[in-house]
Amino acid sequence: MSARKDELAAGLAEVRRRVGAACLAAGRDVNEITLIAVTKTFPASDIRLLAELGVTDIAENRDQEAAPKVAESSDLPLTWHFVGRLQTNKVRSVVAYADVVHSVDRSRLITALSAAAVRADRTLRCLIQVSLDVPPGEPSGGPADDVASERGWRGGALFPEVPGLAEAVAGAEGLELGGVMAVAPLGADPAPGFARLAEMAAAVRAAHPGATIISAGMSGDLEQAIASGATHVRVGTALLGGRQAIVR
Ligand SMILES: *Cc1c(COP(=O)(O)O)cnc(C)c1O
Description:
Largest sheet: 8 strands, parallel
Shape: globular
Distance between the termini: 34 Å
Helix content: 40-55%
Radius of gyration: 17 Å
Order of helices and strands: HEHEHEHEHEHHEHEHEH
Strand content: 15-25%
Bound molecules: pyridoxal-5'-phosphate
Number of strands: 8
Number of helices: 10
């Protein structure tokens, strides 16, 4: 094996061990958890090695970077997840390769995704991204598309908006409602946020029984996410190593 493949194999073994221990602690079956490797900033060669090691699900967060890496990996049997803030002008490109979009957080995006999916003759699974940054009930929109990335707003709908967005996805041609997704608030205990996410997920599932996905948990907090019912964990650093900061 190449040195890099050894490194990735070790990272994967450790992440699988952590997922297994978290499931044991939570009384859950490991088969309930899908491990998604977040490969942003790493080359397509790493995606190939991960696939050889048995990883089936890959996530990227920027279309510019993802599109060429997907093209280089087209012979691999992978499920592709888009987990980044999605601007409507990138929707057509993303719909061409993504199987699941985790970052659906506004109705204009749903309209655009639906139109692109119909046009591409694809069915796209969508998760409603829930913001855990703003306490529920607090009035705040979140900045408009163009200033969002500048301010580091990580996206996500406010809690009261989630049921309506879920309804809109469920009723949109070309889209399928998969469930919910969230990123834990920066620098805070993730457990309360994940607990609120689980309540929201249950409410969405009550209205839409097929929407069973809870995408939560990253390298630093996958144990807490699994304890709160996560079905999909998105892991970058713990699998692939540290990322260089990207200057955009
Ligand atoms: C980068 C990223 C991850 C993975 O983060 P790590 O801390 O490196 O595991 C998960 N989810 C989203 C949305 C990301 O952008």
